[in-house]
Amino acid sequence: MATDSWALAVDEQEAAAESLNKLQLKEDKVEAPKPESNGTDPVDNGAEKTNNEEEKTEDDDKEDKAAQSLLNKLIRNNLVNTTNQVEVLQRDPNSPLYSVKSFEELRLKPQLLQGVYAMGFNRPSKIQENALPMMLAEPPQNLIAQSQSGTGKTAAFVLAMLSSVNPANRYPQCLCLSPTYELALQTGKVIEQMGKFSPELKLAYAVRGNKLERGQKVAEQIVIGTPGTVLDWCSKLRFIDPKKMKVFVLDEADVMIATQGHQDQSIRIQRMLPRDCQMLLFSATFEDSVWRFAQKVVPEPNIIKLKREEETLDTIKQYYVLCNSREEKFQALCNIYGSITIAQAMIFCHTRKTASWLAGELSKEGHQVALLSGEMMVEQRAAVIDRFREGKEKVLVTTNVCARGIDVEQVSVVINFDLPVDKDGNPDNETYLHRIGRTGRFGKRGLAINMVESKHSMNILKQIEQHFNKTIEKLDTDDIDEIEKINN
Ligand SMILES: Nc1ncnc2c1ncn2[C@@H]1O[C@H](COP(=O)(O)OP(=O)(O)OP(=O)(O)O)[C@@H](O)[C@H]1O
């Protein structure tokens, strides 16, 4: 497998850099000054927010699905540990259900099997067990597959594409759509790695900045690209003949539909493909909007879903600490650090401003602190997470960005310096679960400590307690004996 003429040329780096910059979230906005605290007991203080519960600015850690997906790929080098079961809905329930426990059973071409093993894959993942036989079946089967990120979807459809290509034919036979330039590049890398022992198979990148001569035809058998450029190559520019496609993959459908333009372009591309082209669609999540899109793109699909493991907080001890101000919260944190041994901790703040203030204060106290926030480039975030994972820093201060997906085994304590709330100020239970789920992984015991600084945040805490039907106990951080007990 090689990328020849279409491998990104130097003069196209500009487009790449521009595209990468898009992943950089906007700069902090200056926040309006807040009124002074009246200094009364926050818990009896009405439902008002205190001066320390800053409003999030609109752009503060705006959710960027493409950035999160890229980050997950950059920081992950292994399959997500999952014991989940797969649910398979076959289009033809009469055909025997077939799943494989080994790659040999798939009767892959020897070079591909070699590629699979060279990547360090010993056996198929849960989703691959069921998806691969379906994708490699004769006649080809359409598939809509949903499973969490990191469960092996990319590897599965790459194998399906590589298997169906006829290397003797020098025109595109497999087309894969990715939502962004960077994600296309990541998938391209997997295609190159897995196709390493098949030098006759070639890959082209249909991404912005990759220009061909007028009248030229793509000779590579596999094309990976973003919807806008692929559409141009298939229609206006006619670099590709869509009628010859055998496999069409739409990857990261949930990220794709976050951009309306991409959704429309994908549908237009799909309509140019021949009826017998195999359609495969993958997504990590499946809200209604994704389903509606999937059904437009994939006719008569087989469906594979990974049943979500019930997330449980049973192994995590949860406490709250009552404070009056941001400074008191910080003091409580210092008391906790002074009393118990903490291998590694993650501390979550509501805004970037609080996070950087807290990181500064903790550094002054002599802690090795890493700060992770939304205005960093995705590559920088990945580097911070890697360092933390390696134990170079013991404390990671962060906002909601990156609450998901970070998997650091050493994290023994999660601190909600600010409780998670949604944009309307209501408790964000899902984020709470994700945050405190950073500790207590794989059945280990973990500790979660919530800082409460007003009646408002106490109400939020109570609602979180009710939602999870789990008592969150009060902790007096002025009492060293009491703090020591929580670690037992
Ligand atoms: N059968 C396997 N055995 C071991 N590792 C695997 C296997 N399949 C995939 N992997 C590895 O697991 C990681 C995640 O796989 P992959 O990227 O295919 O997941 P994904 O579900 O497509 O994730 P995303 O939703 O983020 O795109 C990769 O590092 C990949 O190399």
UniProtKB/TrEMBL annotation:
Domain Helicase ATP-binding intervals: 134-304
Name of the top EC class for this enzyme: hydrolase
Taxonomic superkingdom: Eukaryota
Region (Disordered): 20-65
Record domain Helicase C-terminal: where: 315-483
MF terms in GO: ATP binding; hydrolase activity; RNA binding; RNA helicase activity
Enzymatic reactions: ATP + H2O = ADP + phosphate + H(+)
Biased amino acid composition, Basic and acidic residues: 24-34
CDD domains noted in UniProt: SF2_C_DEAD
UniProt keyword annotations, A-Z: ATP-binding, Cytoplasm, Helicase, Hydrolase, Nucleotide-binding, Nucleus, RNA-binding
Record-level GO cellular component terms: cytoplasm; nucleus
Domain DEAD-box RNA helicase Q: 101-129
The enzyme's E.C. designation: 3.6.4.13
Pfam families: DEAD, Helicase_C
Motif Q motif: chain residues: 101-129
Cell location: Cytoplasm; Nucleus
Protein name: RNA helicase
Organism whose genome encodes this protein: Eleutherodactylus coqui (Puerto Rican coqui)
